[in-house]
Design goal:
Shape: globular
Helix content: 40-55%
Strand content: 5-15%
Largest sheet: 7 strands, mixed
């Protein structure tokens, strides 16, 4: 794994195996000068960092239904590497321009891969897989704001987000089997999101999933009437996130993923107790408790 993914030696082994920033390194990084984040529009992705530390990345290929190709995947992975090192980001919001959220794989790209050798297809698929893994394991909150239909890889991107809100007119399809393919690289994230029983249905049937059904099976956390309501949800989520301690958020994400790698009751107790002890002893943990008892706002809300 690249250095940015290995954490520090004080982290539990199961956490070091994750592509996550562990709590100790997160706190050290917060004291460093903020590192650069490549903003602006490039390769079909527009990136904006606002004054409150929120990144909005917008898929901006509306004429291609915001489908994914090699250039877009490379751009996203570079962005996720930068975000992992960033110290001034409070949350990441994924949006799309146009009628579609993401139509999955770009048709030209699909046609191109049809002529690839097995080795070329393997390398190509791994690039997509690593991009999704990096997105799924970012240390800050990630939110998908879904304004339109999503297919295949688009459903994968949504599943990698901590929170997903969609408009009621949106719909979703895991359509790979209709093309003689399979939803392989997105499967870990979609299955984690909707569960094995629902994945068995929708992976195998390739039927359309309405926004209401997506909410019922857990793909979407909330469904709103229209894009205006989606913007209201965005504002509310950002306001709430500004109240939360960035290091505690990163440590909590590490906790969630780390627990999934533990197989015994003893390891569970050791891991969770260690995580809590480290956060209690951290600068952020002490500041949060002190602010509570002193009846003032903690430093991260200012």
């Amino acid at each position: 794994l690249p250095p940015s993914h290995t954490g520090v030696s004080s982290c539990p082994p199961m956490l070091r195996r994750l592509r996550l920033t562990c709590p100790a390194s997160t706190l050290r990084l917060q004291r460093l000068q903020a590192r650069s984040l490549t903003t602006g529009s490039s390769s079909g992705v527009d990136v904006v960092l606002d004054e409150n530390g929120f990144v909005t990345m917008t898929l901006d290929r509306p004429s291609e239904f915001n489908s994914m190709n090699e250039a877009l995947i490379v751009r996203l992975q570079k962005l996720f590497h930068e975000l992992r090192r960033a110290t001034n980001v409070r949350g990441v919001f994924l949006k799309s321009q146009g009628k579609f959220f993401c139509a999955g794989a770009d048709l030209k790209w699909m046609k191109k891969t049809a002529g690839y050798t097995l080795e070329q297809n393997f390398a190509d698929a791994k690039a997509l897989g690593y991009m999704l893994q990096d997105f799924n394991s970012l240390p800050m909150p990630t939110v998908a704001l879904v304004q339109g239909p999503a297919f295949g890889g688009g459903v994968g991107l949504i599943s990698c987000c901590d929170i997903a809100v969609g408009v009621k007119s949106a719909h979703f399809t895991l359509s790979e089997v209709k093309l003689g393919l399979l939803p392989a690289t997105i499967s870990p994230y979609v299955i984690a999101r909707i569960g094995v029983p629902q994945a068995r249905r929708f992976f195998l049937s390739a039927e359309r999933i309405s926004a209401e059904m997506a909410h019922q099976i857990g793909l979407l956390h909330e469904v709103v009437n229209d894009e205006a309501a989606l913007e209201e949800q965005e504002a509310a989520l950002k306001a709430g996130m500004l109240l939360n301690a960035p290091g505690a958020v990163a440590a909590t994400k590490s906790l969630i993923f780390g627990l999934g790698m533990i197989s015994s009751a003893e390891e569970t107790v050791t891991f969770t107790a260690g995580a809590l002890a480290k956060q209690r002893a951290s600068v952020e943990g002490k500041e949060g408790v002190a602010a509570f008892f002193e009846k003032r706002k903690p430093s991260w809300t200012k």
